[in-house]
Design brief:
Elements (H helix, E strand, L loop, with lengths): L1 E6 L7 H15 L3 E6 L4 H5 L7 E4 L8 H18 L5 E5 L14 E4 L4 H4 L9 H21 L2 E4 L2 H11 L4 E2 L6 H4 L13 E6 L8 H11 L6 E6 L4 H13 L6 E5 L3 H10 L2 E4 L8 H8 L4 E3 L6 H7 L3 E2 L3 H10 L1 H18 L2 H20 L1
Parallel strand pairs: 1-2, 1-4, 2-3, 4-5, 5-6, 6-7, 8-9, 8-11, 9-10, 11-12, 12-13
Length: 378
């Protein structure tokens, strides 16, 4: 079996990109012929590919960070898939708008949907300008047509995304939970930043409204006079209007000495932060952010997550973290009862070790490719 993995421009090394890296490495290790077709890839991501037999087909373009990027990705990926599809048996699509590259190709397509376009593009059209409303509505309709007509094999990570996907497309996806680099995050780094008696709250992830960093800042602001030495670290790719609004709140409330903004961090730096932190605060809404709480738990760091976060049902049912919208109250509870929350995190560490492995995820993805190929061949 030969697999063509397709992804739009990978301009930051986040969770979605990590999934692709792990899958490519699994295909290499299991001697499954494959290639990555993308409109751009960071050198940092290329370096993570443990084997050199991953063919990388790049279709680069000059980024503009607006709707033109979406259209460029859509056009270039579609053209690239048409040009190279004949060499492969299965097309594996990742991240909007890669699913549109399945248009009129005579190969089975499997879409790993971590977020549908309505989430990726910020929801509905209410409040938008007339041209943007029209463009979004046309794009959503076109996307649904392509997916229903050409992409009948869909994979999501959890029940929440399965329900959402079915409501949007009328198709029932397969659920395959992501894996966690347990071996990496469960081993303490050689150096752990000294917190000097501070109570460190961590949130990781690129700045956008769905990651909801502003709620973390507001929670810490409420506790600044109640928890001596409280500090918030917001690690993640910066930029855009939302990041500026978070910075404005920090400045307006004189929180510059309390909130740290280190920007994007690599995996080693992220591991150091997990071990330095007293708690991971994850007020993420119903998009992305699936990996961070489980990575933190692998490091035995207590987690507080939003009920909207897609892995919240698992964290709640397994009793391995706090699920609440009262972030300030939850942080205070962790501060006052650190040993108890550490025991919960230890239970979470064992859950991650026993249930969330990349071998399990990637093995099931390969089975999904094989099933799609069998169905296609009839």
């Amino acid at each position: 079996m030969r697999v063509l993995v397709v992804a739009p421009r990978m301009y930051v090394y986040g969770g979605a990109e990590l999934v692709i890296v792990e899958l490519l490495n699994y295909l290499s290790e299991n001697k499954i012929e494959h290639a990555l077709l993308t409109t751009g890839v960071l050198p940092e991501i290329e370096m993570e590919l443990i084997k050199k037999d991953t063919e990388i087909i790049t279709l680069p373009f000059e980024a503009s960070d607006d709707w033109r990027d979406l259209l460029k990705n859509m056009w270039l990926l579609s053209r690239g898939v048409r040009r190279h599809a004949e060499r492969f048996d299965v097309i594996n699509l990742h991240n909007c708008p890669a699913e549109l590259a399945a248009f009129s190709i005579s190969k089975p397509a499997v879409w790993l949907c971590n977020e549908p376009p309505e989430v990726f593009l910020g929801g509905g059209t209410a409040g938008e300008s007339a041209p943007k409303r029209l463009m979004k509505a046309m794009f959503y309709d076109f996307d649904k047509f392509i997916v229903r007509r050409f992409v009948r094999n869909i994979v999501v990570a959890d029940e929440f995304n399965a329900v959402r996907f079915k409501s949007l497309y009328g198709l029932t996806p397969q659920i395959i939970p992501y894996g966690i680099n347990y071996g990496f995050f469960s081993n303490p780094p050689e150096t752990i930043p000294v917190n000097h008696g501070r109570f460190i709250v961590l949130q990781s992830g690129m700045f956008n409204p769905y990651k909801n960093q502003l709620e973390s800042v507001k929670a810490v602001n409420l506790l600044r006079d109640k928890i001596p030495g409280i500090s918030l670290v917001l690690a993640g790719f910066q930029g855009g209007a939302y990041f500026e609004s978070v910075k404005k709140y920090i400045n307006d409330n004189a929180l510059n000495d309390i909130v740290q903004l280190p920007g994007h961090v690599n995996r080693e730096q992220l591991r150091e932060l997990y071990y330095a932190a007293d708690v991971l605060l994850h007020p993420v809404k119903s998009q992305g952010g699936w990996l961070s709480p489980f990575e933190a738990l692998a490091a035995e760091t207590p987690v507080v997550v939003s009920p909207e976060m897609t892995a919240a049902p698992v964290i709640k049912s397994e009793g391995i973290g706090t699920v609440t919208e009262d972030y300030a109250g939850a942080l205070m509870d962790v501060y006052l009862n650190r040993p108890g929350h550490k025991q919960i995190a230890t239970r979470g560490r064992l859950f991650v070790k026993d249930n969330l492995t990349w071998d399990n995820f990637c093995g099931k993805m390969v089975m999904a490719f094989e099933a799609a190929l069998i169905k296609y061949r009839g």
